[in-house]
Amino acid sequence: MVSKGWKVVGWIGLILVALLFLQSGVMKLLGVETAVKGFHKLGYPDWFRLVIGALEVIGGAALLFRKVARYGVALLSVIMVGAIVSILMKGDAIQAIMPGATLIALLVIGNYRKPLNQAGLDHPSEKQVM
After folding, report:
1. Nearest CA to 21 among 48, 65, 52?
2. Distance between CA 58 and CA 61 in Å, rounded?
3. How do residues 10-36 score in pLDDT, each as one tens digit?
4. With contact defined as beta carbons under 8 Å apart, do 42 and 90 qualify?
5. What membrane topology is annotated for this entry (predicted)?
6. What are the domain boundaries of the chain?
């Protein structure tokens, strides 16, 4: 049984990661200068920034719904792996720390944010970490 404190920590972490992707995706879609420059620095065209932004918004929203959270984790994990590889290809290993940490957070969320029937729970009122 998970304590109430850990449950609260799990929800806070989940919400923060979801907000991170929602904010990041919206910034890319709106063409915020830092997002545009970041993609250009990595050699990607504007259409790719828009696709990634849309996928980040979709994935961030999916994290909040138990039935589709794992799809959101999978989608966002692929994006984070791509970000890490892109940054490392440009030779800037320090910049890969943030997407790496975010990828780890996503994997933790994916491990705990299972649909009720896969989490060993038959009813929504039963206890689950997140």
Report:
1. 52
2. 5
3. 889 899 999 999 999 999 999 999 999
4. yes
5. Multi-pass membrane protein
6. 31-112
Q: What is the pLDDT of residue 4?
A: 84
120 is written with which tokens? 């060993």
Burial bucket for residue 39 (CB in 10 Å: 0-12, 13-18, 19+): buried
Q: Which residues lie below 8 Å from residue 86, measured CB to CB, with a gap of 6+? A: 42, 44
What's the one-letter identity of residue 16?
L
Q: Please determine, for residue 92, whether its predicted confidence score (pLDDT) is greater than 90.
A: no
Residue 13 CB-density burial (10 A; 0-12 exposed, 13-18 middle, 19+ buried): middle
What is the model's pTM? 0.84
Contact call for residues 52 and 102 (beta carbons, < 8 A): no
Among the listed residues 26, 83, 79, the one whose alpha carbon sits nearest the alpha carbon of residue 53: 26
Helix and strand numbers (H, E) in the chain are 5, 0
